[in-house]
Amino acid sequence: xxxxxxxxxxxxxxxxxxxxxxxxxxxxxxxxxxxxxxxxxxxxxxxxxxxxxxxxxxxxxxxxxxxxxxxxxxxxxxxxxxxxxxxxxxxxxxxxxxxxxxxxxxxxxxxxxxxxx
Length: 117
What we know:
mainly alpha, two-stranded antiparallel sheet, 5 helices, globular
């Protein structure tokens, strides 16, 4: 349970940082909005993340699996756009800001993983 809360907090922090540094990626003000957007993205990632990863890997004839980091980056950007479509608490103006925000989320997640483990 504690690891779940820590992961949620790190994701919320990553969303907040991405909203500060990525042009075209904005969160509505307030802690509650960060928590809700993080929860929506986390649920979408849990439900659809691996499915999209496998579909992209298979449709690229295995290259998606070979370049797993790039495929995961693309999946995160797609899930960010889906999160944007589901809620009005986050606004992503195009796919390029989603790509950059996905990179920020990945970098902060990897950094937190290194620090916490």
